Amino acid sequence: MAKQGQLSLFYKIFSNRYFILAVWIFLAVFYTYKYIGYGSINNYLIFKYTYFNAAMGHNLYAAYPQFYSDTNHYGPIFCLIIAPFALLAGNLGLYFWQICNVAFLFCAIQLLPLSTLKKNIICIICAQELIISLKEFQTNGAIAALLIFTWVLVENKKDFWASLFIMLGLFVKLYGVVGVVFFLLSKQKKQFIAGLFFWGAVLFVLPMLFFSPAFVAHSYIDWYHSLMEKNAQNISMSTQYQDISVTGMVRRIVGHQINILPILLTAVVLFAVSSLKKQMAADLRSRLLMLASCLLFVVLFSTSSEHPTYIIAFVGVGIWFMSAPQPVNKWQIALFAFTLYFGSLFRTDIFPAYIKNNLIMPYALKALPCLMVWLTIVTEMLAKKPAAVQPEAAPLNDMITPTPTTI
Q1: How many other C-beta atoms lie within 10 A of the C-beta of residue 208?
Q2: CA 384, CA 208: separation in Å to the nearest integer?
């Protein structure tokens, strides 16, 4: 009886979305406070000064060592996104920036058509990666949320609005462009395409309403050059903290620069063919696999991937595992455990320091477990008869308008 009571208590706690949200917000506040104390808020200072630089007409992508190290690599629209936080007094902007990032991702995950318990477990699965992102004051959680919102809106036949999230992700950090793959799931393709053009135009000119049009137009050119310089830096193998991707892993293993085009082409072909195979998929599992594949692909094959970027990938890992039909087979359990331990928890004290410092970090092996998950997803998507899973949560409209609770 005592054991059943403990299980019942465990279920009640971890089935409560507000408890998980409270934990995530606590993590945001705690690590913000901690790293303000360390003086390690460089990334946020880069974000903050993009607004002030834009307001003064200064180059958004030049170096300003008097304020921060490194340079900005976000699109001009980001100046407007960061503005409300940059204008807050003292450190308030820091706290609200972190809280909004975790809340945005949490809300996106909660819209997935899975049970509340499964969605909360996805949040737990990516908690370590969330902490890494919070330590760096990064936007990666929000990028993952944009992709999830895109999928959810397409799923609920709100394709015009889905296009907004794709273009927003594109104009902020380019990553969002991968969301166009959800066009294959769209049942309103004309709205989807029209939305891309409409929102692309809106987001392109929106900064021009607040800053000089000539300045904004030139900033897009500066942004392009900034991204080219950043890519060259990423592939130089000058640091083990950049290019934590499949191509970066291969480069470090062979010990010299390689032609990455064959790797990228193979990945794109696999991604495209598996997505096309599931075009207009009738079963939910296939559509969720496409979302998981998208979240993993954008990290695994980007030279810009860093350790904090993997919050995006691990949301995909969580969706892949938690949407698996029951009972979960031994291979899925083993791969999930391997991925969680070697791909995420290796940054903690429960992982041997020697392996972390001499294998995983120098050779970018953080990418390996996620690559294995992605290949497993692609294999299932290419299979003739993928296992189906039924929706376990209300659709978007029902989540906005309360409906009677069902078991």
Answers
A1: 14
A2: 50
